[in-house]
Design brief:
This protein is α/β, with parallel strands linked by helices and 179 residues long. The protein has 6 helices and 7 strands, in the order E-H-E-H-E-E-H-E-H-E-H-E-H. The protein has a single domain, classed as 3-Layer(aba) Sandwich (Rossmann fold), CATH 3.40.50.
Length: 179
């Protein structure tokens, strides 16, 4: 796979586990070193800020996409290569999908879950066929994985979810499956 850009979906907060931020920074450094452009939500705070800062510090390229409503909440990042302010969340997600070759899902909250499941749904519907990696840092997504297994076991998924969503424990593993 010729991965030139990766969308990273993650929290606008850092979470309580310091490994979330440290693994995020490792990912950013790896992406920059490999010449992979980061596409992300455009914020300067939380894990979003950490991924953007780490890519920029390592000399990489960053495209941020932020909806007008979140400019003040997520404090739009003013130190990245390219910041695009869009009218709403739907346009943000669509633009991020269009700009990326693959996606990595880091720890996050409701917005991150929305982005993960929309991307998975679009993949299942064959709107795109981009690889999606769930970075399960320190078991953050263990309960979600168990729930997706339950959806599968109860007949609510059209195919084996593991064909659409790759689960990795570290940033290095995630990069390895995408390059």
């Amino acid at each position: 796979m010729n991965t030139k850009s990766i969308a990273v979906f993650c929290g606008s907060k850092k979470g309580v586990n310091p490994r979330f931020e440290s693994e995020t920074k490792v990912l950013g450094g790896l992406m920059a070193t490999l010449g992979i452009t980061l596409v992300y939500g455009g914020g300067s705070v939380g894990l979003m800020g950490a991924i953007a800062d780490s890519v920029m510090e390592a000399g990489g390229e960053v495209i941020g996409v932020i909806p007008e409503v979140l400019v003040s909440w997520e404090a739009q990042h003013k130190g990245i290569s390219d910041l695009r302010v869009v009218p709403d969340m739907h346009i943000r997600k669509r633009m991020m999908y269009e700009l990326c070759d693959a996606a990595i899902i880091l720890p996050g909250g409701n917005g991150t879950m929305d982005e993960l499941f929309e991307m998975l749904t679009w993949n299942t519907l064959k709107i795109h066929d981009k690889k999606i990696v769930l970075l399960n840092c320190d078991g953050y997504y263990n309960h979600l994985i168990a729930h997706i297994d339950a959806m599968q076991a109860n007949g609510f998924l059209h195919e084996d979810w593991k064909d659409r969503l790759l689960v990795c424990s570290t940033a290095q593993e995630a990069i390895n499956v995408l390059v």
